[in-house]
């Protein structure tokens, strides 16, 4: 067991991550998982959580935290009238289905595999955001019908595997079809709600009864970390919403891209160091 002083230090680190998570939830419409997953991975490693379950526990715990932060962010953005509620209603089955599929895959994939999925998707999205040009648009209107449902399932699945609320992928998806980044960010907060709620149950099931999980864990969710971070993130999220509406489209895109590259590099280091 680590010394008490070290545990206090890591508790403070998690608290700081809660502040960043809340800001990200408001600014980018994401649940903050892109920063929480690597933080959890390091903390759980220090607490001697086995490598075989460490990344899974990090992703599952992040998913649990996304529920209240996404709800908080969604409420704040909806009050500003920026959410595309029609798109969210069309994905009310597709996004949860993707989240459940992600938990099934997580039950079978290795820790390295989960980290590589995280890195690959994050880098692709970052490059698109950093070098975005209007003529890179896939189209001027979002798909409908089966194509729209397929997009929802893919976003739900990849987000569930990354431990994020779907904002990373939904922002890219909506802007690729000409939607304003501010509307994409606002709608992404609702996407996070539809992914994270079924994701909690999926990650509990995927890790149920496995050896090596730390105290206060149910499956791949550690409730001690959840309880520490959620109150902080809920307080901070509205600040991020106000900041998001004060920034320009290009400032949001560049900030989002740089952030994703930083996180990707951190995970590559964890794999190959």
UniProtKB/TrEMBL annotation:
Entry keyword RNA-binding: no
One protein family per Pfam: TauE
Membrane-spanning ranges: 12-41, 53-71, 91-109, 114-131, 151-173, 185-208, 220-241, 253-272
Matching InterPro entries: TM_pro_TauE-like
Keywords of this entry: Cell membrane, Membrane, Transmembrane, Transmembrane helix
Topological relation to the membrane, as annotated: Multi-pass membrane protein
Subcellular localization(s) per the UniProt record: Cell membrane; Membrane
Family assignment from sequence similarity: Belongs to the 4-toluene sulfonate uptake permease (TSUP) (TC 2.A.102) family.
Name of the featured protein: Probable membrane transporter protein
């Amino acid at each position: 067991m680590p010394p008490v002083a070290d545990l206090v230090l890591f508790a403070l680190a998690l608290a700081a991550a809660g502040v960043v998570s809340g800001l990200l939830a408001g600014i980018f419409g994401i649940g903050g998982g892109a920063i929480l997953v690597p933080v959890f991975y390091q903390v759980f490693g220090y607490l001697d959580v086995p490598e075989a379950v460490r990344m899974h526990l990090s992703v599952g715990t992040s998913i649990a935290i996304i529920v209240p932060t996404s709800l908080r962010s969604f409420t704040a953005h909806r009050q500003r009238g920026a959410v595309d509620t029609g798109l969210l209603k069309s994905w009310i089955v597709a996004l949860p289905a993707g989240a459940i599929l992600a938990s099934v895959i997580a039950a079978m994939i290795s820790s390295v595999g989960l980290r590589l999925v995280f890195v690959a998707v994050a880098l692709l999205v970052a490059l698109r955001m950093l070098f975005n040009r209007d003529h890179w648009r896939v189209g001027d209107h979002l798909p409908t019908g089966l194509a729209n449902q397929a997009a929802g399932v893919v976003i739900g699945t990849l987000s569930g595997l990354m431990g994020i609320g779907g904002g990373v992928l939904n922002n890219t998806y909506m802007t690729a079809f000409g939607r304003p980044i501010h509307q994409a960010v606002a709608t992404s907060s609702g996407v996070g709600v539809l992914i994270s709620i079924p994701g909690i149950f999926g990650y509990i099931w995927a890790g149920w009864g496995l050896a090596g999980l730390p105290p206060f864990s149910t499956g791949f969710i550690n409730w001690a970390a959840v309880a520490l971070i959620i109150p902080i993130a809920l307080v901070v999220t509205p600040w991020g919403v106000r900041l998001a509406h004060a920034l320009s489209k290009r400032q949001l895109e560049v900030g989002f891209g740089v952030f994703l590259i930083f996180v990707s590099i951190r995970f590559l280091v964890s794999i190959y160091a």
